[in-house]
Amino acid sequence: APPDAFSPKGQNWNVAPLSPVALRHRDMAPLRAILTAAMQHAGAVRIDHAMGLMRLFWIPAGGTPADGAYVRYPLQHMLATVAEVSRA
User: Fold this and answer.
1) pLDDT value at position 77?
2) Strand, coil or helix: 76
3) 66/44 Cα distance (integer angstroms)
4) Average pLDDT per run of 10 along the chain, which is 88 residues long?
5) Which backbone phi and psi does 72 adopt, to 5 degrees?
6) CA-based Rg of the chain, rounded to a whole angstrom?
7) Calpha distance 31→29 (Å, rounded)
């Protein structure tokens, strides 16, 4: 998370993000696989930080949150994939 009043140094959650370019090139297959696995044993999943479907704060390897930036995701494709997998 970027630096803010709550966390002046920002936060590094050490979670590797999905590449929005790879998602598009692979017709959202990585996201579909994650959602399918998560929904396999449950009727629903909670998407915490749903804003992450639109943008994520990336921190470069070896960097700090002050070095990070928001990276946009294809929101409509992300939402359509969530809906598709939830209907399966």
Assistant:
1) 97
2) helix
3) 35
4) 94 94 97 94 85 96 95 97 92
5) -80, 150
6) 15
7) 5
Residue type, 51: M
Structure confidence at residue 42 (pLDDT)? 82
Enter the pTM of the model. 0.85
Give the CA distances from residue 25 to residues 20, 40, 46, in Å, rounded to whole numbers and listed in that order.
Answer: 9, 25, 26
The whole-number pLDDT of residue 48 equals 86
Residue 61 structure tokens: 């390897």
CB atoms within 10 A of CB 3: 14
Reduced to 3 states (helix: H, G, I; strand: E, B; else coil), residue 46 is coil
Query: Domain map of the chain by residue range?
Result: 20-87
* H helices present in 9-70, as ranges: 20-25, 29-39
